[in-house]
Design goal:
Strand order of the largest sheet: 2-1-3-4-5
Radius of gyration: 23 Å
CATH architecture of one domain: 3-Layer(aba) Sandwich
CATH topology of one domain: Alpha-D-Glucose-1,6-Bisphosphate, Chain A, domain 3
Helix content: 40-55%
Largest sheet: 5 strands, mixed
CATH class of one domain: Alpha Beta
Distance between the termini: 41 Å
Shape: globular
CATH superfamily of one domain: Alpha-D-Glucose-1,6-Bisphosphate, subunit A, domain 3
Number of helices: 11
Number of strands: 12
Length: 338
């Protein structure tokens, strides 16, 4: 598919080369045709979102603040939610080709939190530059990340018989608090390596109907195999409207557990289980954490670093575990803390 797309782009570039000057009839006509086609595609996409994904969803009386990250959502997102009846305040929706993601969007939530409080809005949405991710802010201005979003959507879908096999797919970076919350509802959380492509692979392998990342990249394979921040927003708003509950109420029951991450510079990347002292220490930590905590040991893919990530109920406890394990790794595989 990528090769076909590249071939189309190359063919179009060759066609443009026939134009004799920037103002030639051929080039102007081609631009007009492409512009007209783009307008039709945008309109078709908006109709799909509003009338298929958002079918029977009325947002009358709902006030939204949308941070469009000066990116792909800048024109589309305000139109979509206005079409469904919401009062929309859009910020960072003036892309100039250079300001995408600059101090805004899902990478910088602070501006959205402030605007939601100023506008007394019901909900705020922050997209990233290409709008495949969506993160949220509730009416109190509190941040709602991808883990909390998965929690809300999983409950909503389960109650309506839409959560296949009561299973949700997430990555190794999702907080253990999500796993514990899911377990309390009889929902199994499957974990993959970091990356939406791995989440999608697992969704297709298992037939699960909901998956995503802490970063806000959520996938609904029965609706789209690509992450789409506006689809995520529509589904979250449907949960809010149909339950009649506010976002802060829907996120109740999910408690984020304390987390610590320690990086240790190493001279080699041997499998941790192959180093007896590291393997024994890791097993001991996992036993002490039990079902209320989690240890993740992995190497950086780009740097000579071992990463020790521990989540648990008590900050002091996990710091102690992480410090001891990091010291053993440093002794066995390298030296110096990164």
């Amino acid at each position: 598919m990528e090769r076909l797309i590249e071939a189309d782009i190359a063919a179009e570039a060759e066609d443009r080369a026939w134009a004799q000057s920037p103002g030639s009839f051929f080039e102007v006509t081609t631009l007009e045709i492409n512009s007209s086609r783009a307008d039709k595609l945008r309109a078709h996409y908006l109709d799909y979102l509003a009338y298929e994904i958002g079918a029977k969803l009325s947002l009358e009386g709902t006030s939204l603040v949308l941070d469009c990250a000066n990116g792909a959502a800048s024109e589309l997102a305000p139109k979509l939610f206005q079409k469904l009846g919401a009062r929309v305040v859009a910020i960072n929706n003036q892309p100039d080709g250079r300001n995408i993601n600059r101090d805004c969007g899902s990478l910088h939530i602070e501006g959205l939190q402030k605007k939601v409080r100023e506008e007394s809005a019901d909900l705020g949405v922050a997209y990233d530059g290409d709008a495949d991710r969506a993160l949220f802010v509730n009416a109190r201005g509190h941040f709602v990340d991808g883990d909390a979003t998965l929690w809300v959507l999983a409950q909503f879908m389960q109650e309506r018989g839409l959560l296949e096999d009561s299973t949700v797919v997430a990555t190794v970076m999702s907080n253990v608090g999500l796993e514990i919350a899911m377990r309390s509802r009889g929902i199994e959380l499957l974990r993959t390596d970091v990356g939406d492509k791995y989440v999608l692979e697992e969704l297709l392998r298992t037939g699960a109907t909901l998956g995503g990342e802490q970063s806000g990249h959520i996938i609904f394979p029965e609706q789209s195999l690509a992450g789409d921040g506006m689809i995520t927003t529509l589904n979250l708003l449907r949960a809010v409207r149909e339950t009649g509950r506010k976002l802060d109420e829907l996120t109740a029951g999910f408690t984020r557990y304390p987390q610590i991450l320690v990086n240790v510079r190493v001279r080699e990347k041997r499998p941790f289980e192959d180093v007896e002292r590291i393997g024994d220490a890791a097993r001991e930590v996992r036993e002490k954490l039990g079902a209320r905590g989690r240890l993740l040991l992995r190497y950086s893919g780009t740097e000579p670093l071992a990463r020790v990530m521990i989540e648990g109920e008590l900050q002091e406890e996990i710091e102690s575990y992480a410090g001891r394990l990091a010291a053993i790794i440093r002794t066995e595989l390298g030296e110096g803390d990164a």
